[in-house]
Amino acid sequence: MKHPQLVEHPDTTKRPLRLVSLTLVAGLTLSACGFGGSGSDETGEGGTVTLDLLVPTYSDGTKGLWDDVIAGFEAENEGITVNLEVQSWDNINDVVRTKVQSGQAPDILNIDAFAGFVEDDLLYSADEVLSEETVADFQESFVENASMDGKQYGLPLIASARTMFYNQDLFDEAGIDAPPTTWDELAEAATQISELGGGTYGYGLPLGAEETQAEAGIWFFGGGGGYGDAETLTLDSPENIEASQFVQELATSGATQPDAGATDRTPLIDVFIQGNIGMIVGLPPTIGQIAEKNPDLNYGTAPIATKDGSPVTLGVADHLMAFENDGDKQEAIGAFLDYFYSADVYVPWVDAEGFLPVTQSGSEALADKETIAPFLDLLPAAQFYPSTNPQWSTAQGAMQQLYGQVAQGSDPAEVLGEIQARVDS
Amino acid sequence: MTTTPTDAAARPSPSPDSRPGRQRPGDRPRRPAREVLAALPWIGPSLALIIAIVLFPAGYMAYNSTREISSSGIDRGSVGLANYATIFDIPALPRVLANTVVWVVVVVVLTVVISLALANLLDKQFPGRQLVRLAVIVPWAASVVMTTTVVYYGLQPNYGIINQLLADVGILEVADYGFTRNAVPAFVVSILVAVFVSLPFTTYTLLAGMQSIPGDVVEAARMDGATKARTYFAVILPQLKPALAVAAIINIINVFNSLPILRIMTGSIPGYDADTTTTLIFKLIQSDRRVDLASALSVVNFVIVIAVIALYMRIVKPMKGVDE
Total domain count for chain B? Predict the structure, then answer.
């Protein structure tokens, strides 16, 4: 079937259409070429500076807390606007990498590790953006953990430490007098609680991908091992292997919940809050979660059990960092960060999120708060991830993907060997 | 879906004159460049779209696979084919490839066979057929992630309703079996979900194919005294070939590249025992933060799927009509 109209009047519609399609082609191709170019952004316009702030969500309130900070800052600093972007922890690494790759890095970023960015020369150092008073207010232990080659790049934001939570009712039922301090006592207590039956588990062991490196780290540190330091990572040390063998024994003997290697932390803490787990290692916000979800839970906190009973805990610090980008926003970034770290702004922020403050003024202000007091006492004995080691993010990724196999019966030495091999390659 | 089932099913078999081989190259009339240019306004927009959203990203991916890209996203220069060497050195790769084969073959075969049965049923006249047809299409209306998540929660130890059901009827002693926490059961459950979500499209593709089979052919077969089974296998099934081909190819591509089901069902399992190449790509990005390696594996993935389709076309020759 022919369409005579098209044949007879070939020129009536062609020209405008051709123009449209050519424009489309050009537009699409050009915008495609722009991809990957430098995306330097909105300075100018009457001297205003726009700062891009990219943060992850710690809680449902995170966005609101930052909005308050920004509103307060903008009121005091005319000519600077702050553009907030909030991402989930699941996505933020991908988002940051894509932004950096396409030349659109945020000006200020909140994330856990900064070593990779320092390696790529992307960050301002602390003294380049912060006032001397702000720099001096950080607690010593966190500054050390935020520096590479003696220069501080990470700006500690919040800290967290772990402690053991135990269910007093289950302890009573199983006839356990006091929370265990050594591994052997812990194994015995966990087995007794598991034997109560009815869906109760002695020890909650979250070795799933969510935060494998934290639970495993607690066992490594408790056995005298660890992850290594800023220069060398030692994942397959004899101490770590021994600790992993103990973990395996615990998991396969039924003293923990089933499938420990595939259990994530957050859902497992919920099971503890429901009252079905005897002992679990928790963190500061856990106290708030219990108060909110099951205030009747009869629980206590105690130092984490270790091989020989000497106290140890895992400390974790998240950081802010300032990106250099075109190098024209240094002052504005500094103004915002100095404002944020001032006690009047910082203390309510960290308090609302339920974490531990990293500034001296913040610690003094919050020292008496009962939800964080058990953790503040632990900080002196805290061990940190070697997050200034450029290989650490590889180690962390490998731990998350592979270490859970230990709880499923794989040979600990082999699993740790494979993780070490990834780090070394 | 760009290829509608009816298109493929109703496409006439090529006439003898247009077959390759009978025609010498010189016979073909040359198209002057002017004519091609004149066609540009019509094909231009789609061409531009294909370049912008298919060819450019694919090219960029191939380019990335030859670079070293830091975890913060900085391009550190060319490394040639080193990323490919690293990929082929992954100790878990044989298991992952085997998983991929099992995943694609089992899901596609089950889907096509069950869909064929469903399409046969829906082709018959019976009271309430409209409702049954509607019920078959419902899984398609729900998002895959949602469907998978519902099943995932149902299978959770301690509080999942499927786990609870199995315990109540006595198959499990306690409702705490980790279906989604051990590689083999999680993989099996994922296959079931994948079949479930693939059924609507496949069933409707085949149903449309069946409805385009002229009634007189079937009638003629009956007149000639063919049994029901013979009519089905010798008359109906051959005419369904093009529809079956479309269903199979689209399913192969879809299932091969499917991430969400396995990601949700097997995501918490340590190691790579339940991974396919597609979920491995995802782990390389998310956990290892290696975009360069992930790009290399994506290119490998792309080559595999092209090879599979080519093989399928060659062996099954699905586009050939019945009368050839």
Answer: 1
Interior angle at CA A90, CA A89 and CA A91, nearest 5: 90
Q: Cβ A207–B270 below 8 Å, yes or no?
A: yes
Q: Could you tell me if A172 and A266 lie in one domain?
A: yes
Q: Give the residue from chain B lying closest to A91, CA to CA.
A: B286
CB nearest B40 (choices: A18, A208, A394): A18
Average pLDDT over residues B232-236: 87
Inside any domain, residue A34 = no
Residue A168, pLDDT > 50, answer yes
Task: Return d(Cα A310, Cα A122) in angstroms, integer.
Answer: 41
E-only strand ranges, A351-419: 382-384
User: Which band of pLDDT confidence, cut at 50, 70 and 90, is reported for residue B28?
Assistant: low
Residue B210 within a domain: yes
Residue A83, SS3? strand
Residue A218 in any domain: the answer is yes
Residues B181, A263: C-beta atoms closer than 8 Å: yes
A98:B176 CB<8 A: no
For the segment B260-286, the average pLDDT, to the nearest whole number, is: 92
Q: How many domains does chain A have?
A: 2
The verdict on A269 and A211 lying in the same domain is: yes
- Kindly state whether residues A198 and A149 are assigned to the same domain: no
List the CATH number of the domain containing A78: 3.40.190.10
Report whether pLDDT(B267) > 90: no
* Cβ neighbours of residue B181 closer than 8 Å, sequence gap 6 or more: A258, A259, A261, A262, A263, B157, B268, B269
Cβ atoms of residues A147 and A153 within 8 Å = yes
Q: Are residues A148 and A167 in the same domain?
A: no
What was the pLDDT predicted at B6? 42
A20 and B40 within 8 Å at the Cβ level: the answer is no
Q: Please name the member of B74, B158, B271 whose beta carbon is closest to the beta carbon of A402.
A: B271
- pLDDT band for position A22 (cuts 50, 70, 90): very low
CB pairs under 8 A between A and B: 140
> Looking at beta carbons, which residues of chain A come within 8 Å of B74?
100-101, 120, 122
Domain-located, residue B33: no
Within-domain flag for A22? no
What mean pLDDT do residues A366-385 have?
Answer: 81
Contact status of B77 with chain A (Cβ, < 8 Å): no
With CB atoms and an 8 Å threshold, state whether B73 touches A99: yes
Is the predicted ipTM greater than 0.85, yes or no?
Answer: no
How wide is the angle at C-alpha B85 spanned by C-alphas B83 and B89, nearest 5°? 115
Distance from CA of B181 to the nearest CA of A (A): 5
Residue A241 is assigned to a structural domain of this protein: yes
- Determine the structural domain holding residue B73 and report its residue range: 58-316
CA–CA min distance B106, chain A (Å): 25
Nearest chain B residue to A276, by CA: B158
- Above pLDDT 70, what percent of chain B? 88
Residue pair A159/A356 in contact by the 8 Å Cβ criterion: yes
B43 lies in some domain:
no
The parent domain of residue A283 ranges over: 163-303+391-424
Q: How near does any CA of chain B get to the CA of A78, in Å? A: 32
Say yes or no: A123 and A199 in one domain.
no
A161 within 8 A of A315, measured Cβ to Cβ:
yes
* Contact flag B270-A401 (C-beta cutoff 8 Å): yes
